[in-house]
């Protein structure tokens, strides 16, 4: 799971913690393909009969403009596809992909899917509001691109049983979450690894091939963070996280 990918100059509006350089992204592609793995969108894996042991699924959340300017050309050059999860309410706003860019990506074989209508944490909303977020996003993307939207990724990875059920009722057949792990054939829920600015290329490779020790560290970290989110609540957790990251970057202002 990627977010922004590109040069420092092209990362305006992106979260630095989740921003990966174009060089790093290219190195990830090179390492995965050297392992004999096909890089495909989740949508394409679901719709094909390619054994999952030979495929690694790549996704992007939030629709940062660098997805179009940097990641998209790199994927095309590598004969790869990926899912791009967007929020229709922000498409075309500052530093976010436009509908014309998304149409170009769609026509080139990329998978444009739903990240909800806005980017609110769905588990904090009423069932009615969640249903609106899910159905409105799906309908708008389908109308703009003329292609079925079947896959959903919850903003911030925040999902509970109610959100999962409402997503299924809205017509999503696959749900991409932020819990790390290996995807099992036929599973509706797809686990994902978050690629960060600090992620080493060898770790991306280790995730893809299922190296047990590296997977275990990621899973442990996820459950620790999930416990903190539940204990603090989403708003306070985000405030604490922001302060910690500012401290790591040496910005105490």
Provide a compact summary of the structure.
The protein is mainly alpha-helical and 253 residues long. It is built from 9 helices and 10 strands.
Q: Which CATH C-level class is it?
A: Alpha Beta
CATH topology: TIM Barrel
N-to-C SSE string, H for helix and E for strand: EEHEHEEHEHEHEHEEHHH
Find the count of extended strands (DSSP E, 2+ residues).
10
The dominant shape is globular
Mean pLDDT: 90
The CATH architecture classification is: Alpha-Beta Barrel
Strand order of the largest sheet: 5-6-7
| Contiguous runs where pLDDT drops below 50 for at least 5 residues | none
Biggest β-sheet description: 3 strands, parallel
**How far is the first residue's CA from the last residue's CA?**
30 Å
Relative helix content: 40-55%
Strand content: 5-15%
CATH homologous superfamily descriptor: Glycoside hydrolase/deacetylase
What structural class do you assign from the helix and strand content? mainly alpha
Number of helices: 9
What number of structural domains do the residues give?
1
- Rg on CA atoms, Å: 17 Å
């Amino acid at each position: 799971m990627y977010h922004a990918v590109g040069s420092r100059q092209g990362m305006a509006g992106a979260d630095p913690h989740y921003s990966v350089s174009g060089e790093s992204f290219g190195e990830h592609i090179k390492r995965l393909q050297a392992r004999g793995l096909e890089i495909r969108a989740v949508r394409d894996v679901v719709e094909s009969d390619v054994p999952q042991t030979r495929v690694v699924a790549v996704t992007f959340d939030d629709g940062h403009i660098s997805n179009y300017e940097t990641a998209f050309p790199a994927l095309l050059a590598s004969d790869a596809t990926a899912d791009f999860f967007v929020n229709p309410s922000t498409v075309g706003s500052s530093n976010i992909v436009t509908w014309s860019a998304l149409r170009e990506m769609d026509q080139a074989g990329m998978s444009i899917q739903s990240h909800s209508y806005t980017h609110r944490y769905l588990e904090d909303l009423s069932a009615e509001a969640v249903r609106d977020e899910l159905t409105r996003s799906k309908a708008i993307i389908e109308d703009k691109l003329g292609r079925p939207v079947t896959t959903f990724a919850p903003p911030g990875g925040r999902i509970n049983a109610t959100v999962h059920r409402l997503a299924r009722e809205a017509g999503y057949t696959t749900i991409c979450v932020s819990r790390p792990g290996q995807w099992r054939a036929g599973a509706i829920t797809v686990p994902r690894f978050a690629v960060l600015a600090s992620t080493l290329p060898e770790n991306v490779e280790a995730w893809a091939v299922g190296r047990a020790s590296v997977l275990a560290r990621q899973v442990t970290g996820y459950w620790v963070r999930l416990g903190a989110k539940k204990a603090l609540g989403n708003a306070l957790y985000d405030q604490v996280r922001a302060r910690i990251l500012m401290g790591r970057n040496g910005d105490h202002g």
